[in-house]
Amino acid sequence: MNDIQIRPATENDFNAMCTIFQAHVAGGETYAHGPGTGREDCYDYWFAAPAASFVAVKGNERVLGMYKLQPNQVGRGGHVANASFMVSPNAQGVGIGRMLGEHSLEEARRQGYLAMQFNYVVSTNSAAIHLWKRLGFSIVGTLPKAYRHHRLGYVDAYVMYRLLEDPARWELPEDV
Q1: Which residue blocks in the chain are alpha helix, DSSP H?
Q2: Under CATH, which number does the domain 4-169 receive?
């Protein structure tokens, strides 16, 4: 794992990112995107403002996974981050997701976010749920039968949340 680095994603990473994205979308088990989601939509998902995307790379070239970080809401909800993650099917189970998750929490703090929220974690994605709970997230809501799973039909999706700072130390902006 020492030769794996996490860095901002670049245009040169896009083909590998798109391959990983298409693999997850085609699986129909974790992401809401349809199997026909094209390259342009994939590009917009990972690179359109205000998202900041990062990749985990091995040897500075092989993309093992990625995440994007952005505000969960605008304006008065902009202090809460949102993130999306994908790990290459060929790199799952070796800790890449955890590395990306830990990096995203550090990056969210660095960017000034006070909390992080995942809006749509598929309830059958037990590896992700286990990881997010280990990283301090809690399930704060259940969206009954909100996801149409490729094999299992309609399943629940979760909203998961985690504070990044003690709310007692949060400063209110002057416009409040």
Answers
A1: 14-27, 39-47, 96-110, 126-134
A2: 3.40.630.30
Output the CA torsion sign for 105, 107, 113, 116.
negative
Asked whether the predicted pLDDT for residue 67 surpasses 70, the reply is: yes
| Whole-Å CA distances, 4 to 56, 64, 78, 140, 153 | 6, 9, 31, 33, 37
Instruction: Report d(CA 9, CA 13) in Å as an integer.
Output: 6
pTM of this prediction? 0.92
Q: Kindly state the DSSP code that residue 172 receives in the 8-state scheme.
A: P
Are β-strands 153-163 and 138-149 bridged in parallel, bridged antiparallel, or unpaired?
antiparallel
* pLDDT tens sequence across 95-138: 999 999 999 999 999 999 999 999 999 999 999 999 999 999 99
φ, ψ of residue 38 to 5 degrees: the values are: -90, 180
Domain boundaries, the chain: 4-169
Is residue 61 predicted with pLDDT exceeding 80?
Answer: no
Contact 116, 80 (CB under 8 A): yes
